[in-house]
Amino acid sequence: MPRKPIQKQRKTQKKEESYTAKDIYVLKGLEPIRKRPGMYIGSTGTEGLHHLIWEVLDNGIDECMAGYADKITIALLRGNKVRCEDNGRGIPVEKHPQTKKSALETVMTTLHAGAKFGGKAYQVAGGLHGVGVSVVCALSKNLKAEICRGGSKYAQEYSQGKAKTKVKRVGKCKKSGTTIIFEPDPEIFKTINFEIKRILNHLRQQAYLTSGVRISVQDERASPSFRYNFYFEGGLRSYVKHLVADAEPRHDRIFYTKGEKEGILVEVSLQYAGEMEAFEESFANNIFTGEGGTHLTGFRTALTRTLNDYARKNGFLKEKEENLTGNDVREGLVAAISVKLREPQFEGQTKARLGNPEAKTAVEGVLSEGLSDFLEKNPQDARNIIENCLLASRARKAARAARTTVLRKGVLDGLTLPGKLADCSSRVPEESELYIVEGPSAGGSAKQGRDRHFQAILPLKGKVLNVERARLDKILAFDEIRSLIVALGTSIAQDFDIQKLRYHRVIIMTDADVDGAHIRTLLLTLFFRYFREIIEKGYLYIAQPPLYKIQAGKRTEYAYTEADQKEILSSFKKEKSGTVNIQRYKGLGEMNSEELWETTMNPENRTLLKVTVGDAKAADHTFDILMGKEVFPRKKFIQIHAKKVKNLDI
After folding, report:
1. Domains of the chain: total
2. 515 carries an active-site annotation
3. CB 3.0 to 4.6 Å from 236: which of 230, 247, 269, 598, for a disulfide?
4. What is the pTM of this model?
5. Do 222 and 248 share a domain, yes or no?
6. DSSP state of 643
7. Which among 62, 185, 423, 511 is annotated as catalytic?
8. Are both 349 and 270 inside the same structural domain?
9. Average pLDDT over residues 309-313
């Protein structure tokens, strides 16, 4: 048998592009930030955009924690600009001995340059990595720094991380401080839309953590301008009171303790509340650590051990009874944990997780001592806390029994896909999508109009069960929910497995009326409570069907928002299209299969709203209000938001 033409194959392989020394690129200055912005601010979307404000704010907070400032102002200006001002010491402007440039320009245009490395200017600081303000400079189209220091005012301007001017003395100052005015670069960010609510929430949080500091927010983008001030003397205790909000406290006194261990300052405050899942927020040097870390681990360890010790010592737990678990003592818990330490070790530039081992030991020590003392001095509060934990323990055991009875005995196991499901032919989850559709009429149109290769349709009959008030056995007895669980393929509760999810796009598609909104809320509650990982992975969406069908002559347009409608009508008037007919869609069933495909299901035309849990606490709180058993919070919520509602049911 003749050999294969190996030499010919080798010649073909040599056609690869050359790889020599000239192909090695060296990024200078702040170029790495502009090349890979996600490494420094997490993303180039909304989160990353707002992270620019947090980075500048952190510098002002550091001045406050060091005792040199007590006021910070954030202003949203027209033209996508932001002004951040503090009354601290002001960034030094004299020549830096190493860079031979001014200290201001060095800080603004050099990675890993700052006063937080040497150890004398800041005993405690959030900006450990020293890239904060330089990141903002690198990712801004324009940035101006104004420094008041030593009776003089200095200024310097930058663009995309490079200085446009020299540092100049531009006047006199009676005060001291730093003002940064920046405009994010549209070449970097997908959208530049600063959200005032997100900013207010973050600054409120910082004001609670830095008691005695006044933080002001101004929105000058609209007329009249908007102004809000935050100032709290109560610190973490006030913050926990704010977090508990409308929920019913399980005990009267909010626990608070403060202490120092191994040079680490620890503050902890907590309260138990009814109808709330565990909610813990942890901070290191005022930086929110969304993924927790060693300080949160220390808190959980000390909380579980201390409550078990007290329960056994005072006869709440009998000799042969098992200890309360971590989940038992965290049921209904609202807690804030703050540590301030000399050299924080954050995992990742966005500082989402604290890694210092000594923080765990410090929090354990301070909390154990403080909580033990609190329980001994406040026996009624202690009793209420322990009884809440025991109730959670009994509920856990009952749920375990229900899970064994309901799940293990075949309510889900072995079931074939529900008959009402019109499945797709693809078995690749990454390309498959499931439409959860309200009602058989819309389900019929969706089944006819879909792309059968990758789109599955599951019509639901009526409103699903309100899972906010139901136990697992009752939930699994509800046919529509059971059909959904089987269709998803993940099972539920402790048997939930995200790897078995059959569709990586799960799309809720309901009517644009009151009933549709209610069904959507019920489904979101179900996913939030029992399938949260589907949301966290970015697999849950809400379909956006058009509100209006607008026709004039042979031309047909669809409006998805009120703004769309006005724009389309305006274009019709300009073209003098004649009589215009406007149809308001209340239900998906009003559209035929072709219309539903073109407007709502065709990937080339449709708009999908991705469901996120960026602020799990806010979502959790809203679900508690809207779907919980307490009437007054729901009534209050409706009264507050009633005037903002549009097109509730036409």
Report:
1. 3
2. yes
3. 269
4. 0.68
5. no
6. G
7. 511
8. yes
9. 96
